[in-house]
Design brief:
Helix 3 packs across helix 8 and helix 12 (about 245-250) crosses helix 15. This protein has helices at about 10-25, 35-45, 50-60, 65-90, 105, 110-125, 135-155, 165-190, 195-220, 225-230, 235, 245-250, 255-260, 265-280, 280-300, 310-320; strands at about 95, 100. With about 325 residues, it is mostly helical. The model has no long low-confidence stretch (mean pLDDT about 90). The longest helix is centred in the N-terminal third of the chain and has 26 residues, at about 65-90.
Length: about 325
Amino acid sequence: MSTHPIWNDYPQLKTELVQTTELIDKTLFVRNQAVNQAMKEMFQANGKMIRPAFSLLFSSLGHNSDPVRARHIAASIELFHNATLLHDDIIDDGKIRRGLPTMQSVYGKKAAVYAGDYLISACFKITLPYNQMLDTQGLLTRAMDQVIKGELQQLSNSYNIEVSLKQYLTQIKGKTAELFAISCLMGAQESQMSKSEQNLSFRIGLQIGMAFQLLDDLLEYTQLEEEWGKSLLQDLSNGIYTAPVIFSKEQVPAFLQNLKNNREWSSEEAESVRQTLCEAGGIKRTRLLAEQYTDKALALIRQLPDRPERVTIEQLTRSLLKRLS
């Protein structure tokens, strides 16, 4: 099993992530050959595994962590995350994910739905042996509840040119930041850190998740499709207006009204959109907001126990901003 190149700078964590991926591979099996093969390929596509990485790092902060248990917790988070990606691709009719064709575009929407449902089941099953000592089932249920609420709010705001920054931040808190927060919390809980340290871990994950999603939304307008690994201007095509667009429409009110309801964009049209967002300040303001959330996370990280793992958590959090370079 291989991992994403970003983990080459964190050899110990890389080893843990490889073992986590191997655990996932052993866990996944359905009799439908197409769905089974599609799921295996999905987890071999070198996803970044950032959420399970944070879970493992926060597990290593405490004094009572069990490596096998920590990997099961991390695996459950990655299973859950990939289930949400499968469902997102179905809803958005996404054709590309991680630079490869999506499951729904290759095997069909039915296979993708069943695979997503199976992954949700698997994420609960893999943590079941530890449920008496850890609130894994409760936290995963909370994650599911918050992700669905965030996605439903995003659906309600589809093609709503009046969507506000506050509404946008609320929806990304649910659909993205909450799972980052629970990843950190589950790691802290696994290693039996104190309640106050667990609460701190949750708050750190929330700030990291907000920054992460802001940067992800920014990358849609600053990178080429082959670099980004997703379909070009997919959110815009689906009427999902993110921070770069929301900030820009304050300066260019007619921007959204003048956009065609495109499902596909030529390189010239995409460049025109990017140029507008840059000139209107949407790119810069989104970048600054992401940096603010990252700074908040770093300030909270400094309150964690003074251990070598804290330095790694800080380094990894800082590296999220490098996605803009």
